[in-house]
Amino acid sequence: MTDKKFVPLPLRQASTVILIREKNKAFEVYLLRRSTKSGFMGGLYVFPGGAVDPEDSGFDSWGPHVDTSQDQIARQLGGAAFSNEDALGFSIAAIRETLEEAVVFIASEEKKTKKDIDDICSYRLNKDLPVSWFKKKVRNENWVLSLSSLGRWSHWIAPELMKKRYDTRFFIVLMPDNQTCVPDDIETKHGIWITPQNALEQNLTAETPLSPPAVVTMTQLLKFNSFKELKHEIKTRSWGESIFPKLVPSPDGPVIIEPWDPMRHSDVEIDTSNLSQKVLGPGKPFSRIWCDKGVWKPVRH
Fold first, then answer.
1. pLDDT number for residue 3
2. How far, in Å, are 16, 125, 167 from residue 156 at the CA level?
3. Dihedral through CA 183, CA 188, CA 189, CA 192, nearest 10?
4. Coil, strand or helix at 206
5. 48: which residues sit within 8 A by CB, 6+ positions away?
6. Which end of the chain is less congested by CB atoms within 10 angstroms, N or C?
7. Which domain holds residue 143?
């Protein structure tokens, strides 16, 4: 009798949005704490985001309601093995999820008033909205979604042992003027604006426990010394190599091995007995993240 071969769960497409705003020539990032009842990243601080829905795709239906052509989408948001159709679907999902989770609407304000923006943001806070509410609202009120505001940041593929797995595009967006982030109070319970440095420091003390991708992303953002530098990066950044970590279970807490770790493709056992002595502070290079009683901490290998 042979053991059944392990088959990882299928990937579901998803989009995440890194919202940033200027603060004293530096910048802050918006984070939402997921409900502790959530089956994915429960209790952790994450960027707004969620799964791509079938209704998020289709140039025929979305073409009149986006501010970019197919060629512009390819140049600004496309990439290797990332079709224009996929880029559109992920982008629409990014804008929809930002409205659903953070009540921020990334759309053109031409021919629209602040009241129009406030109305659609307030409408989002209604309970039990139908699945197709966003597409119908955009069409009926003739909104134009601001795909031109989206920047590429990273492409994540969830580890094979995760109970829920997503193929996720991380977009980065400047916070629209005259809008305010509001947690939806369903999937997300608390929201904060915070610098990458403070987020990483507060993660280690469990004050602001971050998801593993948020730990990596906040560390990436540390290298930008000003809002101006980051804005330039947004204009020129590509998706880069896909980030496909490995999850290693352990009685001392699971460990995520990032792709740049020398052991990422090895089956050699990893010693997790003294990881509490290997925790790294903000800005220190790392390739492993250890879950210490629910808090994901960078550690030395």
1. 54
2. 10, 29, 6
3. -60
4. coil
5. 16, 17, 19, 30, 32, 97, 98, 101, 102, 104, 188
6. N
7. 12-238
